[in-house]
Amino acid sequence: MNVPVTSTLPKHDIADASLAAQGRMRIEWAERNMPVLSQIRARFEKSQPFAGVRISACMHVTTETAVLMRVLKAGGADIALCASNPLSTQDDTAAALVHEYGISVFARNAVDRDGYYKHINASLDIEPHQVFDDGCDLVNTLHTTRKELIPNIAGGCEETTTGVIRLNQMAKDGALQFPMIAVNDTDTKHMFDNRYGTGQSTLDAVFRATNFLLAGRILVVAGFGYCGKGVAERAKGMGADVIITEIDPTKALDAMMQGFRVMPMADAAKLGDVFITVTGNRDVLRDEHFAVMKDGAIMANSGHFDIEIDVAWLEQHAAKKNAKMRHQTDEYVMADGRRLLLIAEGRLVNLGAAEGHPASVMDMSFSDQALTAEYLVKEAKNLKPGVHNVPTYIDKEVASLKLKSMGGLIDTLTPAQDMYLNSWEHGS
Question: Domain 198-352: which topology?
Answer without folding.
Answer: Rossmann fold (3.40.50)
